[in-house]
Design goal:
Arc Repressor Mutant, subunit A; 49% helix; 7 helices; two-stranded antiparallel ribbon
Length: 223
């Protein structure tokens, strides 16, 4: 795998098919505002190590993005901090799914993202014109994300970074919704013309048993 940033590259491969190796190569030190003299080597090493760790952290979270029940409920509920309040990020809201899906690629950006970047991604994911999304709407979404701890502001700038917690939440919400909930409902609910899959047959049996239980309890009038 190769990840490029200006004249720098992160290369990841399996060395001798045994161990995962991650290497960062910086071909132009001025891409990071650093000179080329030897005394700048420690700074370049730190940049390379940070880049490697960020990539490995993303890969680790990508394979294990589970949330506890308390964390899940907290994110879905409102939050307040320093006289600021924000509504919850509800799992079943399609707009929230688009918002979190747009955050995932921002995690690897070394300088964070801007309001315009978020507006563009939301427009693409929502199928609308970026100009139709007002600045106030973007500011509102940024405040929600920040108060919930999913993003943080880059000091002395108008840019934001996606936190490790934010990436975990975004991956869990979007993967659960797109890989489990949507295909599961399509396979189980008869109103969606579900195919005769094992999940549909299991739901049909459950529906039959529930109807029998309700009838046994005599909750419905006899006709």
């Amino acid at each position: 795998m190769n990840v490029y940033y200006k004249n720098a590259r992160i290369k990841q491969y399996h060395k001798e098919n045994r161990a995962l190796r991650t290497e960062t190569t910086i071909n132009n030190t001025y891409d990071f505002g650093i000179g080329k003299r030897l005394h700048n080597l420690p700074k370049l090493r730190e940049i390379g190590f940070v880049a490697n760790r960020r990539l490995l952290d993303v890969e680790r979270l990508s394979h294990d993005c589970m949330l506890t029940e308390d964390t899940f409920q907290t994110i879905n509920g409102p939050v307040a901090a320093v006289r600021q309040r924000a509504s919850g990020l509800r799992f079943a809201d399609r707009r929230i799914q688009s918002l979190l899906l747009g955050l995932i690629p921002f995690r690897l950006l070394p300088n964070g993202f801007r309001c315009a970047d978020l507006r563009h991604h939301l427009a693409v994911l929502s199928g609308c014109d970026p100009q139709s999304i007002s600045q106030g709407a973007i500011t509102y979404q940024l405040r929600r994300l920040r108060l919930h701890g999913l993003i943080e502001r880059v000091p002395d700038s108008f840019r934001y970074r996606v936190t490790e917690f934010g990436l975990r939440v975004a991956l869990f919400f979007t993967r659960t919704y797109n890989r489990i909930l949507r295909p599961g409902l399509a396979a189980a609910l008869p109103t969606l013309r579900a195919i005769n899959a094992p999940l549909k047959r299991a739901f049909d049996k459950l529906d039959t048993q529930l109807n029998a239980w309700i009838e046994q309890a005599q909750l419905t009038p006899k006709t």
